[in-house]
Amino acid sequence: MPKGSEALTTARKEEIVNACAALYETMSFKEITLKEIGQKTSFTRTSIYNYFQTKEEIFLALLQREHEAWTADLTAIFQGNDSLSAAAFADALGHTLEKREAMLRLESMNLYDIEGSSRMENLVAFKVVYAGAMRSVACCLEKFFPAMSPDEIQDFLYAFFPFLFGVYPYAVPTKKQRTAMELAHVDYARTSIYEITRSFVVRLLHSFEKPDTLS
Q1: Does one domain contain both 15 and 63?
Q2: Calpha distance 35→162 (Å, rounded)
Q3: DSSP state, 174?
Q4: Are residues 81 and 36 in the same domain?
Q5: Are residues 13 and 103 in the same domain?
Q6: Pair (35, 73) in one structural domain
Q7: What is the number of structural domains in the chain?
Q8: Torsion (CA) 208, 211, 214, 215 in degrees, nearest 10
Q9: For residue 214, what pLDDT is reported?
Q10: Residue-wise pLDDT tens digits, 18-63
Q11: Are 109 and 166 in contact (CB under 8 A)?
C-alpha cells in the first residue's frame, strides 16, 4: 500500500477508474453503477465517495486518462518523424485512435451526461487535457504540413475533433442497429475506426502536401 495520503489517494482513484474501465468493456454506461464499480475494488463501496461524488465523475476520469494516453501517442508521432506524407500521417493517426475505443465510445454516447454530473474542478481538469490533445494534433500539422496557415490548421481541428464524436457508432454498430439497417435496406459497408479516420484525414490534408511527398 502506498505511503502518504497523496499517494494513497492517487492509487485508490486509479483503482476505481480501472474498475470502471473493466466494466465498460462488456457493459453500457447506463448499466454500470457505483455499487458494481465498488465490488471490483479492494475497499468498501462507500469509500468511493471520498474520491468521486458520482458515477459520471469516474467516467470523466477515465475519459481524461484516455486523452492523456492519446496525447502521448501523438507526441510520439511528432518526435519520431522528421516528415510525413498525408497518407503516412493519416495512417499513424488512425492507429492511435484504434487503441482509444473507450474514449471514442464515451465521447459519442455519454459526454453530455458525464460532464453535466461532474464537479467544475474535475471538468476543468479534463478540458485542460482535451485542449492538450488538440495542441498535439496542431503541432503535428505545423511540422509535417508547413504549407498550412494557422487558419487552415484551425479549420482542420474544427473538422477533425467533431468528426471523432461520430466514429465509434459508425464503426461499431450494435447487432440491433445492423439488423435494422438490413431490414431498412440501408447500404452499409463495414469499416473500422482506423479505416474511417485514415480516409478522412487523407482527404483533409492531401492539398497541403509538399510536391515531393505526393504518391
Answers
A1: no
A2: 33
A3: -
A4: no
A5: no
A6: no
A7: 2
A8: 160
A9: 45
A10: 999 999 999 999 999 999 999 999 888 888 999 999 999 999 999 9
A11: no
What residue numbers bound the domain in which 200 lies?
Answer: 54-213
How far is 130 from 111, CA to CA, in rounded Å?
13
Q: How far apart are CA 90 and CA 163, in angstroms?
A: 14
Q: What is the pTM of this model?
A: 0.91
Return the amino acid letter for 126. F
30 and 117 co-located in one domain: no
Cell 457493459 identifies what position?
A: 27
Instruction: Clarify whether residues 154 and 116 are in a common domain.
Output: yes
The DSSP symbol for 40 reads T
At residue 66, what are phi and psi to the nearest 5 degrees?
-60, -40
**68 plus 98 within the same structural domain:** yes
Taking the CB of residue 174, how many other CB atoms lie within 10 A of it? 10
Same domain, 62 and 42: no
Q: Which of 13, 14, 20 is nearest to 114 (CA)?
A: 20
CA 56 vs CA 22, 32, 173, 177, 189: distances in Å: 15, 10, 23, 26, 34
Produce one character per residue of 26-36: b if its CB has 16 or more CB atoms within 10 Å, e if not.
eeebeebebee
Report the CATH number that the domain containing residue 60 is assigned in CATH. 1.10.357.10
Task: Let me know the angle formed at the C-alpha of 81 by 77 and 84, rounded to the nearest 5 degrees.
Answer: 90
Residue found under cell 505511503: 3
